[in-house]
Amino acid sequence: MRFRAKMVDVGCLNNFTRIVHTISKLTKMCTLRLTVHNLYFMLSEKVGSGGVSMWCELSQGNFFDEFQLEGMAPDANEIYLELVPENLSRALRTTQHAKSLKIKLTKKHCPCLTVAADLPSLSSLSRVVTHDIPVDVIPRKLWQDFKEPSVPDFDVSIYLPPLKTMKNVIDRMKNLSNFLVLEANKNGEMNLKIETDLVSVSTHFKDLGNPPWDDDDSQGGSQECAKMAQVRVDIKRLQQFLTSQQVNPNKAVCNIVRERIVHFILLHEDVSLQYFIPAVG
């Protein structure tokens, strides 16, 4: 079992650093799945106990100049690692001006992802900074627990307003309640609402647009399209998701399963991030 990769382009390095930083803000522990073509950062908590799920997919060819992988077996050319993403994020932040970056799976006192950065030097000698990040290798028999989540059978799908705008709204609302109602319809309208015994506050967004997942979605009457689907969520979960973002997506989509779950999809040219927040009663 071997893994070795090299990154030379500064733009790719900075982009990869931003993505890992985003992951580190979303979860304290995650699974990194390495395949020949892609990298995946995964989190799957128990939704029944209020847990969230995350699935972040990167095409390795868009980041790495060299990428070598030998999995656990010829018919299973993959590696699954459990790690603390903050440790990887911290290591990458020290390599912002590196001439190149190497990442490989090593065996020190325990399995590690070793990050080695070739940094600029005033002398002719190279200056290499190395970080050893402890990881746990997940055995093959447990791989079935880490499957890509399917897009839920949602009631409404809608494009999100600018994430920074949405974050500013949530930041003001969080002091009023622990919970927020997010609702949207097929007319491109979305509302964020706080309702308590003492106060009722709402923010309205219009003309956001609805993704064309299914042409049948647009066949409903005006009353059907205006009907709101809503979900009540923990406002801290939503704030955490919005605060963490450094992906700068080209498209951001929200899918609502009425009273059950809200599913966010952030799409960029070289990365996709899915995040699931379950409803609260």
How would you describe this protein?
The structure is a single chain. The chain has 2 domains: 2-145, Box (Proliferating Cell Nuclear Antigen), CATH 3.70.10; 156-278, Proliferating Cell Nuclear Antigen, CATH 3.70.10.10. 32% of the residues are buried. With 281 residues, it is an alpha+beta fold. The chain has helices at 10-26, 85-93, 163-173, 222-226, 235-244; strands at 2-7, 30-34, 38-44, 53-59, 66-70, 79-83, 100-107, 111-119, 127-134, 136-137, 156-159, 179-184, 190-195, 200-205, 229-234, 251-257, 261-267, 271-278. Helices cover 19% and strands 40% of the residues. The model has no long low-confidence stretch (mean pLDDT 90). The strands form 3 sheets. Strands 10-6-2-3-4-18-17-16-11 form a 9-stranded antiparallel β-sheet. Helix 1 packs antiparallel against helix 2 (85-93), helix 1 (10-26) packs antiparallel against helix 5 (235-244) and helix 3 (163-173) packs antiparallel against helix 5.
